[in-house]
Queue: 3 jobs
Job 1
Amino acid sequence: QVQLVESGGGLVQTGATLRLSCVVSGRPWRTYAMGWFRQAPGKEREFVAAISLSGGSTDYVDSVKGRFTISRDNAKNTVYLQMNSLKPEDTALYYCAADRQSYHRTWREYDYWGRGTQVTVSS
């Protein structure tokens, strides 16, 4: 069974930095394209960032370009989201997702999901 576990969220002030992690486990092991999504109270779940199986391609929503960086370490079965210059509007529950073939901007197309990690940015 494939499992995704996010960590690294917290309560921080405007301008702070957080690094989210998502560890993928399951047998037999395979590499997945990975994505990050977020959902704030009363809002729709939105795409944040994605990375290809090899890490050679990435994609970001416009609102986080220049501030967030997605990366992966396949030897550790882990994908990261480096979040710099955090703003109150970044406050949300952040989810990671995995797909066997490619990444997407639409959450419904992913094969597996984690339970999320909360990021709260105070003003």
Note: The mean pLDDT is 96.
Job 2
Amino acid sequence: QVQLVESGGGLVQPGGSLRLSCVVPGSIRGIHTMGWHRQAPGNEREFVASMGTDSTTNYADYVKGRFTISRDSAKNTVYLQMNSLKPEDTAVYYCNVYSWFRGDYYWGQGTQVTVST
């Protein structure tokens, strides 16, 4: 079973920074976009950021100017740099890849990000 592997979550104070990483297996065919969603307790999973194969990026309004998505193709890794973190950013962050070949997303297991004093 194909599995995306995330890392980099943790506890950080408001105003702090974290960088999430996600290793994308090279066996995934037809990658269209790579990105991140998040889910806070009691809430639905929501979009955070994505990057197309042409490096076009999209961000949710609530993270624009604070979060940056990037990738290292040589390492098959996608990153999410999160700056100026707020308590409302607390959530489990999920890496995802949309494959046009599969017609569906692949998801990681999630990594917890907690922003608190």
Note: The radius of gyration is 14 Å.
Job 3
Amino acid sequence: QVQVLESGGGLVQPGGSLRLSCAASGSIRDIDTVGWYRQAPGKQREWVASIASVGSTNYADSVKGRFTISGDNALNTVYLQMNRLRPEETAVYYCNVKGRRRWTGNSFGSWGQGNQVTVSS
């Protein structure tokens, strides 16, 4: 009963910018962390950035200074602003949401369906 929907992917030129959105809904008591991951063909899924409910953020070294993760207080909607994109960052980008279910308090982890980002001239 937890749904994660992603949007904002598409085609962008090298050096350009794109903003991805991650929206979580369903039987959620609270969301603890939201992370963005990406996977290029033939490569492992790679962690990109995370945000916690307390507001702290963390980034992979490869995107520091170029990407920004943000969200509302409840993290129901989280964004990944990507600047100065590089061709090698062409990948399917995924959102992962971790938290606790509303009635039981049980923890959950849910993935979005993925969004294609293509960086090409």
Note: The longest strand covers residues 28-39.
